[in-house]
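ok, trying the design again with the full structure, not the truncated one.
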């Protein structure tokens, strides 16, 4: 992707059109993408800026098709990399991934955009969130946008019933979506949006009584045979499952398996209700996955304000973590697993901090807003760019060129990168 930096010579609109016709391989909605090295801690200068205000402007999702990067979240304005031009962009923006030039393509949402998924043929984009209208047209929670004809695909109508689509991914020819929908997790026909009935999991109850039942995030292994979901629920198919569960994905149906992380049953120390399990992602080789959490300090054996690595082969009902890395009292919201590192984001101040109680305990290392963990040892590696903490890093998106970071933070590595930052792989 670095090659595009030298090739840029035209307007952003022209590159956007070219991107729709180039047969580039799209990256997954949420990685399992191998990277040969840890990314640079020095962010690229050629990224646009989200105009941050007082109402929690942030970036929740990225998706790349060809040379075009799409970003969704909660924002109203975007600036060019130099900060000299401001564009009106309602919760969605397209820009050149190499130069940061903002595209003339405008698509407006009346609510937050939380997930972006390219279609299998790269000619459309599935966009999910908490919106009710797209460009003034009624479309609730998810829309399929035809990038070739520049229109909402009229044949795609999903049974969202006004809920929120917080996550989505194309898996084995099905569009799996999750959120606060009536079924919380379902597999749609990617052409029509109809519920295929493939996922029959009965998700019920709440563990956090201060919030509603929901599936927040999910991830599938590269083979498309396992799915791990996180969120606020108490039982799946009548079986106790707090915060996370795993499905086995067969050729015609899915089924709950016996895996459950015993640490998730241990209450955290937070005095206020919080959703504990946040993001999850499989490794590129599919042998393990990592869950990141909120909830307060360690909680006497719980998986609280921490990242935990779990073996995919272990489907025991009392599965133990290969390692757990604690922040000592600060939330983690996002994770990207690349083989070279496990990147974690939220609003941490430290990693390697199991004895911290909203404080820096023995052995802890400073990691403001973002950090990286060695996949084998479970200890923080040397990567330490630092960023503005605020509410935190909401998404981490790995590509063949590096790592995209989305947040409500203004500074990254002491440089001005509000909302959007990109850390390239070393050349």
């Amino acid at each position: 992707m670095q090659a595009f930096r030298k090739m840029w010579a035209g307007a952003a609109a022209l590159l956007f059109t070219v991107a729709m016709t180039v047969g580039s391989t799209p990256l997954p909605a949420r990685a399992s993408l191998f990277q040969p090295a840890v990314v640079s801690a020095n962010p690229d200068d050629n990224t646009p800026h989200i105009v941050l205000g007082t109402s929690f402007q942030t970036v929740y999702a990225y998706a790349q098709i060809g040379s075009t990067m799409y970003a969704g979240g909660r924002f109203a304005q975007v600036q060019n990399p130099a900060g000299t031009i401001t564009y009106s962009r309602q919760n969605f923006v397209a820009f050149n991934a190499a130069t940061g030039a903002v595209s003339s393509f405008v698509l407006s949402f009346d609510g937050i955009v939380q997930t972006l998924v390219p279609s299998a043929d790269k000619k459309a984009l599935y966009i999910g969130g908490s919106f009710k209208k797209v460009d003034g047209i009624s479309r609730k929670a998810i829309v399929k946008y035809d990038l070739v004809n520049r229109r909402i695909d009229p044949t795609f109508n999903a049974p969202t019933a006004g809920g929120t689509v917080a996550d989505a991914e194309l898996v084995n020819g099905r569009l799996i979506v999750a959120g606060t929908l009536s079924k919380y997790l379902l597999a749609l026909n990617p052409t029509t949006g109809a519920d295929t009935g493939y996922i029959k999991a009965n998700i019920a109850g709440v563990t956090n009584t201060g919030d509603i039942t929901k599936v927040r995030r999910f991830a599938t292994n590269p083979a498309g045979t396992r799915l791990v979901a996180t969120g606020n629920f108490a039982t799946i198919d009548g079986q106790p499952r707090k915060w996370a569960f795993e499905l086995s994905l067969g050729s015609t149906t899915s089924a709950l398996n016996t895996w459950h992380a015993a640490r998730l049953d241990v209450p955290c120390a937070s005095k206020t209700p919080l959703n504990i399990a946040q993001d999850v992602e499989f490794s590129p080789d599919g042998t393990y996955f990592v869950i990141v959490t909120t909830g307060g300090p360690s909680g006497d054996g719980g998986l609280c304000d921490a990242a935990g690595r779990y073996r995919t082969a272990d489907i025991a009902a009392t599965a133990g973590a290969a390692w757990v890395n604690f922040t000592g009292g600060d939330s983690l919201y996002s994770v990207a697993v690349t083989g070279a590192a496990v990147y974690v984001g939220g609003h941490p101040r430290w990693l390697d901090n199991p004895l911290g109680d909203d404080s820096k305990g023995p052995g802890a290392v400073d990691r403001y807003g973002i950090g990286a963990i060695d996949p084998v040892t479970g200890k923080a590696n040397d990567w330490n760019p630092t960023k503005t903490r605020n509410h935190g890093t909401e998404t981490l998106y790995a590509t063949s060129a590096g790592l995209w970071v989305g947040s409500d933070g203004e500074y990254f590595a002491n440089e001005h990168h509000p909302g959007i930052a990109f850390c390239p792989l070393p050349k």
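Keeping the full-length input from now on. Residues 12-19 form the longest helix (8 residues).
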